[in-house]
């Protein structure tokens, strides 16, 4: 290849398409005797753009948004950006993976992680013959 | 292997340890509300005929929000209702100064996916009127 950088045409230089910024959403976790509750703020995420996957006790949450665009309007002031969200949690052994529930309401994702039913220890009666 | 911790709050120092155990998000930045001191951030879009104010406020209900226009200001107020009796609530109190007066009977607001959008139309009296200049 004899072409040098100087000879390369402008059209051959590809500019990377700016990727959407992916961030971890603000979240908090509550727990009680029945299990855990993960609350994650994901403003702008529609239910159709939310994915929750569980694999090998790794819970992965991803949500996509679209940048708001208003025809004929100029964006004059910004305090927040449109992000895509991603987070993952390694679940503790005492969580019942089959009973995980999730709901997304007004940009707030709530994931309920119930604890597996503990085996109740049985008292063994000792009888003497 | 780390497990979920009890009663974590937003600025929880253990959060960084959670990150070590995650596959996705290991090197990802945290979502930041904004560089401003306000917890609930706004974005503003304008043209010569109107203005749209977007407020990022996920997890609320529309009935908790109290919006009003006073003069050239948009007041965004509200308070959440605690889940449990005596539980924590969040209050909203923001004032957005508008670049022009708006028709207060033509304000439309919608709350979807945690984003409040307030649509306002510029007041007719506040629109620039061209002045004809007659040659002497």
Q: Would you mind describing this structure in some detail?
A:
The complex is a heterodimer of chains A (129) and B (136). Chain A is 0% helix and 40% strand. Chain A is mainly β and 129 residues long. Chain A has a domain at 28-67 and 78-119: Immunoglobulin-like. In chain A, the strands form 2 sheets. In chain A, strands 1-7-5-4 form a 4-stranded mixed sheet, with no helix packed on it. A 4-stranded antiparallel sheet of chain A has the order 2-3-9-8, with no helix packed on it. In chain A, a hairpin with a 2-residue loop joins β8 (101-105) and β9 (108-114). Residues 1-9, 19-23 and 33-38 of chain B have low confidence and may be disordered. Chain B is mainly beta and 136 residues long. Chain B has one helix at 15-20, and strands at 42-47, 50-56, 65-70, 73-79, 91-97, 108-112, 115-121. In chain B, the strands form 2 sheets. A 4-stranded antiparallel sheet of chain B has the order 1-2-7-6, with no helix packed on it. Chain B has a 3-stranded antiparallel sheet with strand order 3-4-5, with no helix packed on it. Helices cover 4% and strands 33% of the residues of chain B. At the A-B interface, β1, β2, β3, β5 and β6 of A face β1 and β2 of B.
Largest interface: A-B, 49 and 49 residues
Structural class of chain A: mainly beta
Report mean pLDDT of chain A, rounded to a whole number.
83
CATH architecture of the domain at 28-67 and 78-119 in chain A: Sandwich
Q: What profile does the largest beta sheet of chain A have? A: 4 strands, mixed
Oligomer: heterodimer
The total count of strands of chain A amounts to 9
Low-confidence stretches of chain B: 1-9, 19-23, 33-38
Protein traits:
A: 129 residues; mainly beta; 4-stranded mixed beta sheet; 4-stranded antiparallel beta sheet; 9 strands; 0% helix; elongated; B: 136 residues; 3-stranded antiparallel beta sheet; 7 strands; 4% helix
